[in-house]
Write a structure and sequence with these properties.
Chain lengths: 231, 225, 224
Amino acid sequence: MASPAECKVGLRFEKVDKRYGTVYALRNLTLTIAPGECVALAGRNGSGKTTLLRIAANLTRPTRGSLSFSESTENQNPHTGFVAHATMVYDELTAEENLLFFAKLLGVTKRKERVAELLFEVGLGERKDSLVRTFSRGMRQRVAIARALLANPSLLLFDEPATGLDPEATTWLIGRLRTLRDSGCTIVMSLHGESEVARLATRAVRLEAGSVVADTRAGTTFQSVLSFTGS
Amino acid sequence: MAKRVVLCAAAVLLVIAAAYASFFIAPEERTMGDLQRIFYFHVSCAWAGLTAFLIGFASNLLYVWKRNEKYDWLGVTCAEVGVAFTTIVLISGPIWAKPAWGIYWTWDARLTSTFVLWLLYISYLLLRTLVEEPNRRALLSALFGIFAFIDVPIVFGAIRWWRTQHPAPVIMGGPNSGLAPGMRPTFYFAVLAMHLFMWFLISERYALEKLRGEVEVLRREAEAS
Amino acid sequence: MGLLSNAAALLGKEVRTEFRSRELLSTTIVFVLIVVVLFSFTFDPTTNESHRFGPGLLWLAFLFAASLMLQPCFLREQTNDTLSALRLAVSDPFAIFLAKIGANTLFLLLTELLMLPVFAALFNVNFRGQLPGILLTFLLGSLGISTAGTALAAISAQARMRELLLPLLLLPLLAPILVASTEVTVGLMSADPAMQWKGIGFLAVFDVVFLTALWLFGEYLLEE
């Protein structure tokens, strides 16, 4: 399996609308994310961050407009890792069983080793045989992150990744994201405002009412894009 | 507007003409006499209903492919019109059966299959009331519509086989009983009249659904600004 | 990973999960038992007539049980949005359906096979020697019920009143299965047992048609 550096994924949202009945979650959104960028997505609740991420993950189609991917490698099918609000793991299976199952579906080679490695990394090595049902919110989030990292993704989509994590786990997450970013993985993460995680970003974009209203690429400072003032 | 009036007038006139023909022009049937005349009405409604469902099936497929809401409007229109015609079939059957056989329902293969068909499309309409978001509703009902329609031939086939295992009075002549030549012109005329009436109902109902859709767009734009 | 290996992995997980708790199987079996017993109060189950009514009631009980048992299949995937995780992990969304159809068919078959001796005892029916025929009927019938049922469960999971909606959508659709399975089973359990191949034919046609339809349209059923 190729390391993320070999597959660089770029995304291009072209005039994307996403409508639910009379409500526009995204409106005429145009955004290009270059391969290897680490983008912090800021905005209030309901500004369209989750919808944007779900479209990028190919879980929802745009009502209008298009999303295209550019891959600067010919032979790989780049994997996407997605961490959402919901944990996306089975409560009735153990942490290890969950990861082994998804690793099998994804076709991860040397499953057992990879799963053991990831479980140890997220600090759940001791609890690998416990049912996810018994886990705290923070522990479930760690399983979710491990699940997203299983297949060495070239594109990582995070919806508020540090939710529920204690300071120690947050520090680990920041370190891990930094390594991924430096190895060429494209990362898009939605955040609620300025936070430690935001400091990893090479670019910040602010959404409001489904459209891009501020972008550090256009010259705005990180602070003003990420903060709540001035909206 | 003129077009609608012309279509309405033509459809109504043709139906009245077909009724006249079935009562006064068509020859009297040997065994059942005047009672048999309901046949022209009963069978032509059945065919019109099936045609409506067929058009609905096509628009369901088109919606899943193109996602244009017009096909959703046409889909629900055809389902409602089809159910209307099928209801007439289910009511006219017993009206005929009681004087002819002494019982209202004989579990005749075609009538029973029509009953299942009716239930399937009633379920389709019920499904639509239970999904609020318009795009979701359109997609889910189009998919159910597709499953329902492909089931129809299997339903008819299986029930016909079932009836050969347990024969019962057949309501309007079995599938092999031909139509007497004298009756054919009236019959085909009735079929034509009913299809024209079906077309009229579909275009009116579609126009209503289109208006509703346009109101939605306006409301959307009003809420947006 | 290919379609079949994905489906196999998913099927393995579904079966393993169910056998851990056995809640679906146990409730379904008890439900069928209750329905059969209640049905028997509506006529005299000891006369010869029961040989004619019995199989029909048995299949009706299976249909009702299935329309309840198939509900959790997609509702379970909604609790933690594991459906999205599956959609992201598999190469072909049809694998998700294949696996769930396989699991549901298996659970239905197990229920039916457990009910068979009970039914034979309660209605004094002898089916010895006809077991292969009965197994074939159960298999094709259950496959049809599961295929249509899994597809419609995906639909009803996204609507309101889903507990009532699934039976409402499913039962009319399964009319051919009820008709054909009953006729074949009656034929096999009669005093002069005979195999009704035409009925088997209808079951097979239903299965193929709906599996194909699901293969063509399945991904749209999972769309958000």
